[in-house]
Amino acid sequence: MSYPVPVHKLLFAVLILCLVSTFTTSAQITSATANRVDSLVYPVSPAKDPLFIFYQTHQGFVPGSLTATLPGTDLYNFDWSKYNPAIYGFDPPFSSDTDIPTSTVLNLEEGGYSVRVWNGTTTDITMVAWVLQDHLQTTVEKTEDDLLPSYKFTCDFVIISGAVSPDTLFYYDLVSHDPITQVADYRFKWTSDNSELKIPNDTTVLDPNITFQPPYEDTWYILTATDEYGMVDVDSVFYISIQTAAEFTLEYWDKVAKVFDPDLNGDWSNPTDEEPTGSTDARLTVKFINESKNGATFEWVYLDTLGGIKENETTYDLEANTEFTYERADEYFYPFMVSTSEEGCIDTFKLDEPIFVQPVDLRIPNVFTPNADGTNDYWVFKHQSLARCKVAVMDRTGKVVYKIQIEDIYTWEGWDGNMHDSNRTAPEGQYYFVVEALGYDGVEYRDPYIYDSWKIFGGSGNTDQDPGTDPGQTQETQYTGWLYLYRHKGSF
């Protein structure tokens, strides 16, 4: 329902319009301390007046200030008045200045202000401005120590609760003098000091904002609000994490280089190469490097088979690394670790790819040149996952010239071409080798004919059959064969 505007209101409005009509466009009201300047429009009045906004921080009251200026250096009189809705107009002047070029009023409260500028002859204008002391308040639920209350989090979730209280602008139409109320619009955002944390609904949900993957690091949750006048207010709460994140990485023991190597794989090389490397073959010793977050107890499970075999260990120091040696070849292993925080939260980490221990393999060359030129001076073969190995070399008459039983194949440097580890060199020519091995897969690798017929490794010594193929012919087994020894440089 609308009501007739009182006559005295209309008369006052006409007076204001007449005064404004003498307004010089170069005259203006400014403020040196305002944080922002907007403009106001009215439902009835055609005027468009400035709005000076002063941000009210938590530190205390910030008063307003206004300055009236005109161009040039002429001197004027200034009368400042404050709008009073009870009289539908402006009160008598609360501040007056005489014969000065500009005038400033300080310590202003929120409301409307007019200034009459006149010199008694050519100038008599009135300008109007409004002052808003912007109160934007952002609050986050917390304890007196700025901590997240204990009832706001568990091992499964964290709840943060915030509120934003924007300010309301009150002003009046200068013609109808009806009050105008305008609640400031605002936006907000939840952030944190944890770059890895993703806060759900960070710009849409103030309370309750629930995270179902709580951070495992102590974290500041920060609520920032910004209103339409540009004022920013921030509040925060500190979450002391009870979570843990289980994680570990691996390094493998290189049996040749004698170091742990995270990049070791199944690509082994010949020990005579310039930079020989081992392989992830049995026995494979693995170092487990703990990279968990915020854990107190760590259970390492190295083996957990369907048959009930379980190898595990518990540590209590985040900096302590563990080691385990896998014995069986040609198998996959799926170790995992369970981390438990002091508050009882649990997290489990499993490898994306299992540990694979390489199968048994032998690659035996059939030629070497022990001529001290630094290249191929030893007869040695590539190997993987051998538990034990026996090697014998015979001349064409069947006489053994070299024989060794190797308990650790990685310690064997190979045959140097001397007879029975003496200083007597074996002559150039063709030799026959026999290799028997026991793999970490439990299988014996040998030539049954050689084992049964020769007395090399405890056989019966029955040599009625041909001990091997003729030189140059293809061998059907990789555990016996012809070996060619050359000593003259450049002969091979």
Q: Tally the helices: what do you get?
A: 2
CATH architectural group of the largest domain: Sandwich
Overall 3D shape: elongated
Low-confidence segments, ≥5 residues, pLDDT <50?
1-25, 459-477
Radius of gyration, rounded?
A: 46 Å
Report mean pLDDT, rounded to a whole number: 87
Give the structural class: mainly beta
Strand content: 35-45%
Helical amount among residues, as a percent range? under 10%
Please, what is the CATH homologous superfamily of the largest domain? Answer: Immunoglobulins
Total domain count: 4
As for the CATH topology of the largest domain, it is Immunoglobulin-like
Biggest pleated sheet: 7 strands, mixed
The CATH C-level name of the largest domain is: Mainly Beta
Secondary structure: number of strands: 37
> First CA to last CA: what distance?
115 Å
Question: How would you describe what is shown here?
Answer:
This protein has 492 residues and is mainly beta. Strands 2, 3, 5, 6, 7, 9 and 10 form a 7-stranded mixed sheet that branches. Strands 31, 33, 34, 35, 36 and 37 form a 6-stranded mixed sheet that branches. It folds into 4 domains: 128 residues, Immunoglobulin-like, CATH 2.60.40.10; 88 residues, Immunoglobulins (Immunoglobulin-like); 110 residues, Immunoglobulin-like, CATH 2.60.40; 125 residues, no CATH class. 4% of the residues lie in helices and 42% in strands. The N terminus is likely disordered. Strand 9 and strand 10 form a beta hairpin.
